[in-house]
Design brief:
By secondary structure, the chain is of the alpha/beta class. The protein has 30 helices and 29 strands.
Length: 943
């Protein structure tokens, strides 16, 4: 049964269009024709989830399958969440508007360690028991959907969240989810029990069913029945760019552009980087597929920007050729290209060429560390010379703002390395001075390193106390440095990421209790103190102290040693390490008057192969050892030892194999596309500013489109014109915009049958042809009523606008005294008979000369305005008694439909529906409720 969403999305709900499910590209498959009904539930607000590429790809793939229906749900903002609870309305899927409990399977994206609390929030709002144990014993067990998670965090270490999910999807989902759908369809046909269905799912490579595995005392995980594998394989799929073309939201999203993946996987081997380890092997997409997907996608969506996505776009050797080919094909469309963080060592004139244009975006590089030694330890593969060359290229090509990412708290880091970050920025400023231009600005993000599973640094411990101390060092160093803006990650967030990210199943109770105490993701940004307090209280109540993150979980700092001992001696007997985090051994050494020698790394003498000589603790079981990601654990140990020596490992996509263990039958091999000849540059977009024709369009905004805001409507028209391929004229300047002008902003939630927009074209076009093309690409709830040709020299509709006509529905809710009236100090001096009705009130307003009200301007100034001067006409259309015993009773009880015409000028001289309510309350001394508003026409003054 569909939820009555329209009753929930009232004026007090922010951005209601988030929840409509009516975007371009929404599938809306018939409910009864589907054998398996999915919901992809993204545990973030709509603006984040709807622009996530993985979410879009899987949604498109599932809906492409026969008899498979896939809907979507997102984390509601706090205002809607509160209303769902207060009205006891379950969380719903946005397209079908059905409760999530009506579906067969819910899939959550878990891509961040602290995101699980949002998942619990969504399950609770949906009325679904939070754990698989509770669902198994629930009387409605047979009707409960299966709950699963996928994503980077789920693939890396699902154990802290294992209690909440019926199964985990490991790795890429493009092939895995359709296989799951087939098993579900067969299971429903055969009426399998929940447990039997999960046992069938567990046979699919990539499906991990936590209830079929138990945790041992050391945190390791083992099967509890013979029918399931000892280790679960991560799935690997080939990217398919065509599935990237899909949803076009009406509201502005975080990544408001078309995004197409050009390369999946990264083999650079950065030792801190979990995505680089979990997405191997590298798989380049064929250049022709990329070009065609972008060209078709831009036409189908109407976006003005596209992005090429990869963990390292610069390692896609065909990038300059592909980028230039797309730029040439779309040169007349005012299209811009953006790239995520790039390898600064590969940034050159060829890449700068494809990024340049009328809307030159920012540039982001990630040196990660401030000294060459630290970059070698983490295997960044970047020299100072390459860093300088890349930044200088950017500056020479016109960029004066560059974003740089650094980390602190990396293994083996000294204060010299920390201060090296500031010295590196100072050096870059000095070497890249801008002659005759405004100064170069660096925006720095300095994050705290948190070790991740499946990386060589997974055994390292962090110290929040050290994070704070090192941040203080940098703040002192950057104080007074011009042209630098620095942002630091809060150490408390890093502490929680580390605590949860490398935990075992005992953390499920902590995650749940943290959610109960209010530690949702939004809490981190709105009240970090409150969120941190919730997490720490949950940890304390669970009995898991900070010691949990130390030796008991196999953590230590392999880079620190006691004076006179080798690194292997230091960590062989882990019982000697009594406190690593948050107060590190290095801090103790400093307090005891000892210091680590600068040449420590040169003095190490460690074996380079896994053997009994390795520290015993490296061989202890880890909570994620039962997950087969393809990375050999012994290789991680070897690479950790190379880090101790500050030895680098080459990128196996372009040099020799590093023997990480991935390449083979299960995971495939690296697929690398060679560099291609770069097409000749066809020239930058030159906006066509010619104005050959102006067309004035009268249109409506009805149904759920009333919940789309004014700025979103402007963006919608821009995309519609692009999709319709209409010859729109552009403004000049650095940021050319299409010449589309709306006469007046319609308030959010108000329907209209009388809106006006002007379109200026670069060539004359038949009016009916224009109307047909425009209407074909507009949503059905934005109907076109009339199109007229207007003289180019005539004033615009917004300049001519004089008045607006509204039809409003109002209701009387009793006397103002009984209902707690608002401040009435400016009440008009009028009186009304006790038996007055709507007709009398309307007449009194018409006969009254003044209704004074204080108006506050945007600048904060106040002024008295006479609302009556702005009212041109007011009439009673209909009145509807609510609770009278006689149809002839027309007293002040009940509803009324009123029509009024009032000022609506661009200079701010406006009469709003709320003003009519104010006047009604003055004459009636009743509380008047505004129930419905429709703008029936805008009135232009042609003089």
């Amino acid at each position: 049964m569909a939820v009555k969403v329209e009753e929930l999305l009232t004026a007090d709900i922010n951005q209601p269009a988030r929840y409509l499910g009516n975007e371009l590209g929404a599938a809306h498959k018939p409910w009864d024709a589907a054998s398996v009904r999915w919901v992809l539930t993204y545990p973030e607000v709509y603006e984040v989830g709807a622009s996530n590429l993985g979410h879009i790809i899987l949604y498109n793939i599932l809906n492409a399958g026969p008899r498979q229906l896939c809907d979507r749900a997102y984390l509601p903002a706090p205002d809607l969440a509160a209303k769902l609870r207060s009205t006891q309305t379950p969380l719903f899927a946005v397209e079908s508007r059905r409760s999530l409990t009506e579906f067969d399977i819910l899939g959550f994206s878990l891509s961040y360690e602290l995101g699980a609390t949002n998942i619990l929030e969504m399950l609770d709002l949906a009325g679904i028991p939070l754990t698989w144990q509770e669902r198994a014993t629930n009387p409605q067990n047979g009707q409960m959907p299966l709950i699963f998670a996928g994503g980077q965090t789920a693939t890396s270490n699902p154990e802290p969240y294992a209690d909440f999910f019926d199964f985990i999807a490991l790795g890429d989902g493009e092939e895995l989810l359709p296989e799951i759908g087939l098993i579900l369809a067969e299971g429903k046909t055969n009426n399998l029990s929940r447990e039997a269905l999960l046992l069938d799912l567990a046979q699919i490579p990539g499906v991990y069913v936590p209830q079929f595995y138990d945790m041992a005392a050391d945190g390791s995980v083992h099967p509890n029945r013979p029918q399931v594998p000892d280790r679960i394989l991560r799935r690997v799929a080939t990217p398919i760019p065509a599935y990237s073309i899909g949803l076009v939201p009406y509201v502005q999203t975080v990544h408001d552009r078309l995004t197409v993946e050009i390369r999946r996987g990264c083999t650079r081997g950065c030792r801190f980087c979990q995505p680089g380890m979990l997405t191997r092997p590298a798989r380049d997409v064929e250049p022709q597929q990329v070009v065609e997907a972008i060209e078709q996608g831009m036409q189908a969506t109407g976006h003005s920007e596209f992005s090429l996505l990869s963990l390292s776009c610069s390692d896609y050797l065909a990038l300059p050729a592909v980028g230039m080919e797309i730029k040439n094909r779309l040169k007349d469309k005012n299209i811009s290209l953006s790239l995520p963080s790039q390898r600064v060592d590969r940034f050159d004139d060829n890449i700068a060429d494809i990024l340049g244009g009328t809307r030159q975006g920012g540039l982001t590089f990630a040196p990660e560390a401030g000294t060459q030694r630290m970059r070698d330890i983490v295997n960044k593969g970047l020299t100072n010379e390459e860093l300088l060359r890349g930044v200088k290229t950017a500056v020479d090509r016109g960029w004066d703002k560059i974003k740089l990412y650094f980390m602190i708290g990396l293994p083996g880091e000294t204060d010299f390395d920390v201060l090296g970050i500031a010295e590196t920025v100072r050096w870059l400023h000095r070497e890249c001075r801008l002659d005759g231009r405004r100064g170069l600005t660096f925006n720095l993000t300095i994050s705290n390193f948190t070790p991740k599973p499946h990386t060589p640094f997974q055994w390292h411990s962090v110290s929040t106390a050290e994070f704070s101390r090192k941040q203080k060092l940098l703040k002192g160093e950057f104080r007074g440095m011009r042209g630098v803006k620095v942002n630091y990650t809060d150490v408390r967030i890093s502490a929680m990421e580390d605590f949860v990210g490398r935990g075992d199943r005992r953390l499920a109770a902590v995650v749940r209790r943290a959610w109960e105490l209010g530690a949702g993701m939004d809490a981190w940004w709105e009240s970090l103190d409150q969120a941190y307090k919730a997490w720490t209280q949950a940890i304390d109540e669970s009995g898991l102290t900070w010691k949990y993150r130390q030796v008991e979980s196999g953590e230590w700092n392999l880079f620190e040693k006691e004076e006179g001992s080798s690194a292997t001696d230091y960590v062989t007997d882990v019982t000697d390490v009594t406190d690593v985090s948050p107060m590190s051994v290095g801090r103790r050494e400093k307090e005891e008057g000892r210091e680590i020698k600068e040449d420590f790394f040169n003095s190490l003498d460690l074996p380079l192969s896994p053997s009994p000589s390795l520290p015993l603790s490296l061989d202890q079981a880890l909570p994620w050892d039962h997950l087969d990601t393809g990375i050999d654990k012994n290789w991680l140990k070897i690479d950790l030892q190379k880090a101790l020596e500050a030895a680098t490992v080459p990128d196996c996509s372009f040099e020799g194999c590093s023997r990480c263990g991935v390449c083979g039958t299960d995971f495939g091999h690296n697929v690398v596309v060679d560099a291609l000849p770069i097409p000749e540059f066809a020239g930058e977009f030159v906006p066509n500013t010619e104005r050959k024709q102006r067309l004035r369009v009268w249109f409506g905004k009805v149904g759920d489109m009333a919940l789309v805001g004014h700025l979103d409507l402007i963006r919608l028209f821009d995309r519609v014109v692009r999709r319709a391929d209409l010859p729109i004229s552009f403004t000049g300047g650095f940021h050319p915009n299409p010449r589309i002008s709306l006469a007046n902003a319609l308030p959010l939630g108000v329907t209209s049958t009388g809106e006006i927009a002007d379109f200026e074209l670069t060539e004359s076009i038949d009016i009916e042809s224009f109307r047909e093309k425009l209407a074909a690409k507009l949503p059905e709830n934005i109907p076109i009523y009339k199109v007229e040709s207007i003289d180019l020299k005539a004033p615009s509709a917004s300049q001519l606008l004089e008045a607006a006509e509204y039809v409003i529905t109002v209701a009387s809710a009793g006397s103002l005294t009984e209902n707690g009236a608002l401040d009435r100090e400016n009440a008009a001096p009028v009186s009304v008979a006790p038996d007055a009705n709507w007709e009398a009130w309307v007449k009194t307003i018409a006969e009254t000369e003044a209704f004074w009200r204080v108006h506050t301007t945007k600048s904060g100034k106040t002024q008295d305005i006479n609302l009556r001067d702005r009212l041109h006409k007011l009439e009673l259309v209909e009145q509807k008694p609510e609770s009278s015993s006689s149809a002839s009773d027309t007293t002040s009880e009940g509803r009324a439909v009123l029509r009024f015409t009032g000022s609506c000028r661009s200079d701010g001289n406006l009469l709003k529906p709320e003003h009519i309510v104010f006047m009604l309350e003055q004459v009636s001394q009743q509380e008047i409720q505004l129930l419905q508003v429709e703008r029936s026409q805008l009135i232009l003054g042609y003089g």
